[in-house]
Amino acid sequence: MLYILISVAIILFIAHVILLFTSFSNAGIIPSRYFYSHLTLWLTGLSVFALAALYSGTNRSAFLDYFDTWMRRSYILLFTFGLSLVAHAIVTFLVLALLRKSKTQ
Fold first, then answer.
1. For the chain, is the Cβ count within 10 Å smaller at the N or the C terminus?
2. In sequence order, which residues have a C-beta less than 8 Å from that of residue 81 and are 6 or more positions away?
3. pTM, two decimal places
4. CB 47 within 8 A of CB 8
5. How many CB atoms lie under 10 A from the CB of residue 52?
6. What confidence tens digit (pLDDT) does each residue in 60-94 have?
């Protein structure tokens, strides 16, 4: 089960990156792909949270053993939320502005 959850988290993160990069076109952003890129990021965070909830303190992974309390596990969800906010801000204020600027030239 450990390796299945690790594989799921990796696959979801790769899907997030692919969806994020393919959600931009010359005309702007493709809303459905952009939404699914955020969704896969959140699902990645939930997968890592599940890994920590199931396997922290079992000495199977030093990384997961760090999240041995609920407070530390909540950091995973907080980090995922923060990463999503930062990525959204970068896309909104930087990438879309650059796309609009290049479109007018």
1. C
2. 45
3. 0.86
4. yes
5. 24
6. 989 999 999 999 999 999 999 999 999 889 988 98
